[in-house]
Amino acid sequence: MTGFIDEHRGRFGVEPICRVLDACSSSYYARKSRPPCRRALEDERLLERICVLHRANYRAYGSRRVWKQLRREGVAIGRCRVERLMREHGISGLRRAKRWKTTTPDPIAERPADLVERRFCASRPNELWVADITYVRSFEGMSYFAFCLDVHSRRIVGWQLASHLRTDLVLDALEMAIWQRKRLEPGLVHHSDRGSQYTSIRYTDRLAELCATPSVGSVGDAYDNALAESFVSTFKGELVARRRFRSRDEAELAVVEWIGWYNHRRLHSALGDVPPSEYEEIYHRDNREPTPSN
């Protein structure tokens, strides 16, 4: 009620508002002159921290991830309190963006089978990668963003931006993934849609050199590459939809920074609310082979 009176007192005055609301004006003045209670002071301190955290994470976090990050930083706070503070001050997280089509099937290219069949799970790194292409607009023109994502940790292991949609775009992203992972054991499954870039001879030959098995989904069905589609939605909503880039170089710099945040700081609910890099560190620590004793 105090907030309502504060909002409208300049137009109607305190006493008339209190008469309409059947409230006592002296109570209003007493509350305004009373020093804030301890909980109100704590709310101010927590709100400042929530705002800093929200801005530092591309304003993408909703109340659940904000709460999880505060807990990781040692702040003892209930989720309902975070929800209340964010709601009262108009702080909200990501709203998903619409997906646009960037790959076109090649009707005459040989198409590998779908080995994933919508089961996007992996027991170790480099067991299953998914790949796709999306776009980033700038005043200078369109840039296309190709990526490879490791299903085990949700980590972006390779990516590339270019002003074209030729096979070189996806090949460069694949080469970065190979370089990042250093050594790939046989058995990797590479899953994509049926875009002509991924079914091209150059791309499939490179996968064969790696002893990687190609897998593609069906035509026109986003669910067959749902994990890549989900990442694209996150990428567009958290970075692209909220920015206007003057040039392709500015867009590329923003993408580089965002991927660094996504891989090393962003909390992922599918990983137990830890970043992909931390999830991989936990895996390697728990699966490290014991040193033989003399």
What is this structure, in a nutshell?
This protein is of the alpha/beta class. Helix content is 47%, strand content 13%.
Overall shape: elongated
Helix content: 40-55%
Determine the structural class based on helices, strands and strand pairing: alpha/beta
Q: Would you count the extended β strands for me?
A: 5
What's the total helix number? 12
Unreliable residue stretches: none
Main beta sheet: strand number and arrangement? 5 strands, mixed
Biggest sheet strand order reads: 3-2-1-4-5
The helix/strand series, from N terminus to C terminus, equals: HHHHHHEEEHEHHEHHH
The radius of gyration computed from the alpha-carbon positions, rounded to a whole number of angstroms, is 25 Å
Distance between the termini: 76 Å
Instruction: Report mean pLDDT, rounded to a whole number.
Output: 86
Report the sheet-strand fraction. 5-15%
What's the topology here?
Elements: H1 2-12, H2 14-21, H3 25-33, H4 38-56, H5 63-72, H6 79-88, E1 128-138, E2 141-150, E3 155-162, H7 167-181, E4 189-192, H8 196-199, H9 201-209, E5 213-216, H10 226-240, H11 248-264, H12 276-286
Parallel strand pairs: 1-4, 4-5
Antiparallel strand pairs: 1-2, 2-3
Helix pairs in contact: 1-2, 5-6
